[in-house]
Design a protein that fits this description.
single chain, about 150 residues, alpha+beta, Dna Ligase, domain 1, 2 domains, 3-stranded antiparallel β-sheet, 3-stranded mixed β-sheet, 6 helices, WH_DNA-bd_sf
């Protein structure tokens, strides 16, 4: 984790920003929870446990800064809350998500099966595709079983 923090600190410095102690705390929370999809409020609550002096506005500003420099990316699951994930998106494509409508569980789908569709759309419509996002809504195994 120290190496990643150091690299991100350098990335910020090269763009005339500092990795302040508050930003580092926020980054550490994102790194410690990189398998989760955290809202700004989730990040805030986790940071407050370690550093009570960090405010919600600081969390929002830091998340936007991290988005700007492609340190994290955000996803909207249709519930009115933006969620954040650590991870640079170097190839322009995000992984996809399956979202349970009952419990809200989010499963990551790492297979990218849309490449052929993108190729066809680009060819047929002479459209330059820069990104895509796929969200699949339904019921997870636990909710499906409990509904019976």
């Amino acid at each position: 984790m120290k190496k990643v923090i150091s690299e991100i600190g350098e990335k910020l410095r090269s763009n005339e920003y500092k990795l302040t102690p508050q930003r580092q705390q926020i980054l550490e929370v994102l790194l410690e929870n990189k398998d989760k999809h955290l809202s700004a409020e989730d990040v805030y609550n986790l940071v407050k446990q370690k550093s009570p002096d960090v405010g919600l506005a600081t969390v929002y500003r830091t998340l936007e800064l991290f988005l700007e420099f492609d340190i994290i990316h955000s996803v909207n699951f249709g519930d009115g809350r933006k969620r954040y994930e650590y991870g640079e998106n170097s190839d322009g494509h995000h992984h996809h998500h399956a979202i349970c409508l009952k419990c809200g569980k989010i499963l990551e789908i790492n297979e990218d099966l849309l490449e052929e569709l993108e190729r066809q759309v680009a060819e047929q419509y002479r459209f330059t595709i820069t990104d895509h996002e796929l969200k699949i809504f339904g019921y997870c195994e636990g909710c499906k079983v409990n509904a019976k």
